[in-house]
Write a structure and sequence with these properties.
Elements (H helix, E strand, L loop, with lengths): L1 H17 L18 H6 L10 E3 L7 H12 L5 E5 L23 H16 L3 E4 L11 H8 L6 E11 L3 E4 L7 E6 L11 E2 L9 E4 L4 E11 L11 H8 L1 H7 L3 H5 L2 E5 L9 E2 L3 H9 L17 H31 L3 E5 L13 H5 L6 E4 L6 H13 L6 E4 L9 H13 L4 E4 L2 E2 L25 H15 L7 E4 L2 H6 L4 H15 L4 E4 L1 H6 L1 E3 L2 E4 L2 E3 L1 E3 L8 H15 L12
Parallel strand pairs: 1-2, 1-16, 2-3, 10-12, 13-14, 14-15, 17-18, 17-22
Antiparallel strand pairs: 4-9, 4-11, 5-8, 6-7, 6-9, 19-20, 20-21
């Protein structure tokens, strides 16, 4: 029996191996090396056309008007239509409230219209989606429904308070809620902490704490966790799954089967958890202990004051755990929902990569997008925003880089300016275009949102075929293969987390701008990508790329693993592997 079974298993394995590869989802690049680039360039596959922001606002939505507009859009190389809503100036938390529409968003009439629209768009070769812009915390939409259903999803912020005392002065305070930490530190003559603290929490009674300072000078430091209402805690174990269930999954549930072909993209615009500074929740202390091997509470003051040599380690360890929990419990579940369905999830978040510490670590958290991106308002060509987004995509082998362009450039924007801005931003790493303006209506000139409309409300609309066809081809060709660049600039999150300010950030961005002006391409590199890079032949190899030069931008704090890899890189070069520029091409 074994003699028969083993050959059969081998044959089955060979047959499985010989099966043709599954077709790539629309808009997903081919990095197999077996690709006919010329054929794809001449006739790009689905998913590489423009994805405009389609503002369903300003007038009553009717099937007749939408069908007429769909017919116009179908002839212009547009892949998908992203429905957007704008907001009032007041009334919300992260923004004003979402403007009301007819029919109202997420009402039964709206869902019926959306289903019809998805079907009609599909007949014309387009998919549809909905942006989360104006639908976040405090905006009266699905996030607020999440928080109402499960109030534990609201987050908490760490707040620090301190009081300096002279010898013999007393600290007296009543507490309605026990703080996380309450310590008294001796101070030297220059006001610096000079010795071990006294833990005042054991002194707390029903009426609070009473303590008399025995030192010449003392600092009493208090850290407490305060709930922020409303907010969304990305570290909560149910945060990402609840977010998916209340937003993305609703489309799949409403249109089972149809959503697999009718949806292709989702886009997160200016994500805001409505939490500031250092955040906390009920699982953080135990998770920190499990991951870092020590209790953070006795040293939690180091997040706010200098406790000496250990302060930088405590701050970086805290941020590591914060970011890891946010990834695991929010960003990864959202990413995986899209990945399983072959969808593209893009983003344009608040700091656009210039705020390296956004969400704790912008690079680490935003790698959980199929299409990391940024906006370029007013025809801008910001190399830093583009390079952060594209570097995340390159180093984590994500599918695309999403350009939101070019809101607020005003109605005078002409086709030459638009072409120049698209080409410049694509040269900087972008490869998926969303023109911000596609208006359902202008109400005869009485309605606009971050004008202009770049489509059928512009006089050059009839002549845009060539530009949009060109953009589709560029999107295709620039999405395939692997990026080639000689230079990597370290993305300096660590000095910011350590409390050393923005000196390294300014140096990193200035270096990027300077070498790009000199015609040298580059990527920003995070510490994890550096850590997994292989040193070989005088270059750093990672994610299909290789770098011959690494720029370390005045970092007063850097990870030991980064120093080790840089040491190995230097040693390899000293042992005869001289720098050679990377060969060009895809």
């Amino acid at each position: 029996m074994k003699r028969i079974l083993i050959p059969l298993l081998a044959l089955a394995a060979a047959m499985t191996f010989a099966q043709p590869p599954r077709p790539l989802p629309p808009g997903y690049p081919d990095r197999s090396g077996n690709i006919d680039l010329e054929r794809g360039f001449r006739t790009p596959p689905a998913g590489y056309g423009e994805v405009p922001f389609y503002w369903w606002i300003g007038d009553t939505l009717t099937r007749e008007h939408l069908a007429w507009q769909l017919d116009m859009l179908a002839r212009k190389r547009i892949s998908s239509l992203q429905i957007n809503y704008c907001h009032t100036d007041t009334g919300g938390i992260t923004y004003g409230r979402t403007f009301r529409s007819k029919p109202d968003l997420f009402t039964p009439a709206w869902w019926e219209l959306f289903g019809w629209f998805m079907t009609e768009a599909g007949k014309r070769g387009m998919t549809v989606s909905l942006s989360d812009y104006t639908l976040g915390v405090g905006q009266g939409s699905y996030v607020d429904e999440m928080l109402a259903e499960d109030p534990t999803l609201n987050g908490s912020e760490l707040h620090f308070d301190s009081l300096e005392l002279g010898r013999g002065e007393r600290f007296s305070r009543a507490y309605a809620q026990r703080p996380l930490s309450l310590n008294a530190y001796p101070l030297d003559a220059r006001g610096r902490i000079d010795g071990a603290p006294v833990d005042l929490l054991p002194e707390m009674g029903p009426d609070g704490v009473e303590w008399q300072n025995p030192w010449p000078r003392a600092l009493v430091a208090e850290v407490k966790a305060e709930r922020r209402l409303p907010s969304l805690d990305p570290m909560h174990p149910r945060a990402g799954h609840s977010y998916v269930r209340h937003f993305f999954q609703r489309f799949a549930d409403r249109f089972p089967g149809e959503s697999e072909t009718g949806l292709n993209f989702f886009f997160s615009d200016e994500l805001n958890f409505n939490l500031q500074g250092n955040i906390w929740n009920d699982i953080f202390r135990d998770e920190f202990m499990r991951r870092k091997g020590y209790d953070i509470l006795p040293q939690i003051d180091a997040l706010f004051v200098d406790l000496g040599d250990s302060s930088v380690k405590v701050r970086m360890d805290y941020n590591d755990v914060r970011v890891a929990l946010s990834e695991e419990n929010f960003f990864i579940p959202v990413y995986e929902w899209h990945q399983r369905r072959g969808l593209l999830f893009g983003c344009d978040h608040g700091g656009r990569g210039r705020d390296v510490g956004e969400f704790g670590d912008y690079f680490r958290t935003q790698r959980w997008n199929q299409a990391p991106g940024c906006d370029q308002p007013m025809l801008q060509k910001d190399i830093i925003k583009n390079k952060v987004a594209s570097s995340i995509s390159h180093l984590y082998e994500r599918q695309r880089v999403w350009l939101e362009g070019f809101h607020s450039s005003e109605w005078s924007t002409n086709s030459a300016q638009l072409t120049d801005a698209i080409f410049a931003n694509f040269a900087m790493g972008q490869n998926l275009l969303s023109l911000h303006g596609l208006y359902y209506t202008t109400m005869g000139g009485w309605w606009e949102w971050a004008a202009p409309c770049n489509h059928f409300h512009e006089p050059y609309w009839d002549e845009m075929d060539g530009l949009l066809e060109c953009t589709e081809r560029l999107s295709y060709i620039l999405s395939q293969g692997y990026h080639v660049a000689d230079v990597a600039i370290l993305y300096p999150v660590e000095p910011v987390v350590a409390g050393y300010g923005n000196e390294a950030v300014e140096a990193a961005f200035a270096a990027g701008e300077a070498i790009y002006r000199d015609g040298i391409d580059f990527d920003y590199m995070d510490y994890e990508s550096l850590g997994r890079a292989e040193v070989r032949d005088g270059r750093l190899h990672v994610a299909g790329e290789s770098f011959g030069v690494v720029v370390v931008p005045a970092m007063r704090a850097i990870r030991h693993s980064s120093l080790e890899k840089l040491r190995d890189f230097v040693r390899d070069r000293r042992h005869g592997h001289q720098y050679r520029p990377a060969a060009g091409g895809l």
